[in-house]
Amino acid sequence: MERFVQRPDVARVLGHGDTKSSVELLHGVQADLRILPPERYGTALSYFTGSQAHNIRLREMARQRGLSLNEHEFSHLEGEGAPILCATEEAVYAMLDLPWIPPELREDRGEIEAAQAGSLPQLIRLADIRGDFHMHTTASDGLLSLREMVEAARARGLRCIVITDHSRSQRIANGLTIERLLEQQQAVRAIDAEYSDITVLHGSEVDILPDGTLDFPDEVLAQLDLVVASLHLSLDQPREKVTARMLNAVRNPHVDIIGHMRGQLIMRREPADLDMDVVLEAAQTSSVALEINANPARLDFGSCLCTARAEMGIKIAINTDAHSAADFELLPFGIGTARRAWLSAEQVINTGKLTDCWHG
User: Fold this and answer.
1) E-strand stretches of 164-236
2) Mean pLDDT across 2-11
3) Closest CA to 322 of 228, 224, 207
4) Whole-model pTM?
5) By the 8 A CB rule, do 321 and 295 touch?
């Protein structure tokens, strides 16, 4: 406990004891540490990983069985008999005649009913991701060369990547001109030919400009393996205008993925005020995929919105937007968002076998 409250990233200590301490971290998040005997671990773990609404449902189900449930144990409502301790989460749910429910689903959004019906989804796993379709090299604002990014992706176990450096209007990010873009394409083709265990494709993260046009003309976009269209500029435009910009990109036949749709940088930049109902309807009738950007600062899609996309049959990509080798390790954040949205591997385009990987 002493080491926990004395961590360098602790802003202030909210509570400190022998078995329970709470701190506020430098970035404002509260962190708690609990110490408990192994035989009580399952009950505590299920309690602290479930939302309030989910936990209320579990307590109601316990009462229907003549039991009381809290973070420590099951006990008999009539006070007779010893408390029932659960060392695992599986044991907790078994007491309620339920299969284990993944933590990401514990929001009281139908997961209990699905568990009772035996229809919980097979959620996407980190191991299911075979490709990453949004990343940057030193050609724009990345930290690694083309070859270094390929090697980093191979080390991560990826089988297919798309190089998507910034387009020309992103001068602050050393965006590529058309000439540089086409030169890079030749370099990508050459390096792809060197590897048998990874496919390296060429694309671009193309700006959706303030007037609604894309940063490269269609005849250039048509030459790319994959196009990620993203908002970076004028995010504060009125809803009608910024939505119209997004619709132009969604409906463009050369656009494959909409990157970090609302453009938010959490705690740094507010998101664009998109009319999401209109955008999702347009995406539903197009071939475009919408991105879950795994960068924690860009996780601006709530799980409910992700679920809506999935239910509408809209294709989804989980990308790291990597600018360095370390950024590939951000992928679990995107996977977590997808799991909270009840997504399976089949609903995400960069999963499956290499032959199923995106080829533009």
Assistant:
1) 199-207, 226-230
2) 95
3) 228
4) 0.90
5) yes
Residues pairing with 227 in the sheet:
204
Q: 175 pLDDT exceeds 60? A: yes
Predicted confidence (pLDDT) at residue 358 exceeds the cutoff of 90: no
149 in the same domain as 113: no
Range of the domain at 221: 127-356
Phi-psi region of 26 (alpha: psi -120 to 50; beta: other; left: phi over 0): alpha
Q: Report how many domains make up the chain.
A: 2
* pLDDT for the residue numbered 207: 97
Mean pLDDT over each residue of the chain, to the nearest integer: 93
pLDDT of residue 265: 81
Whether residue 173 sits in one domain with residue 288: yes
CA 291/CA 286 separation, integer angstroms: 15
How far apart are the C-alpha atoms of 218 and 178, rounded to whole Å? 12
Burial label for 122, CB within 10 Å (0-12, 13-18, 19+), is exposed
Kindly tell me if the per-residue pLDDT of 194 is higher than 50.
yes
pLDDT of residue 309: 72
The Cα diameter of the chain in Å comes to 80
Q: How far apart are the first and last CA of the chain?
A: 53
Please tell me the distance from the alpha carbon of residue 84 to that of residue 105, in angstroms, as a whole number: 25
pLDDT at 228 over 50: yes
Q: What are phi and psi of 330, to 5 degrees?
A: -80, -10
Residues 170 and 316 in one domain: yes
What is the distance, to the nearest Å, from the Cα of residue 215 to the centroid of all Cα atoms in its chain? 26
Other Cβ atoms within 10 Å of 281 Cβ, number: 15
User: Do 150 and 200 form a contact (C-beta atoms < 8 A)?
Assistant: yes
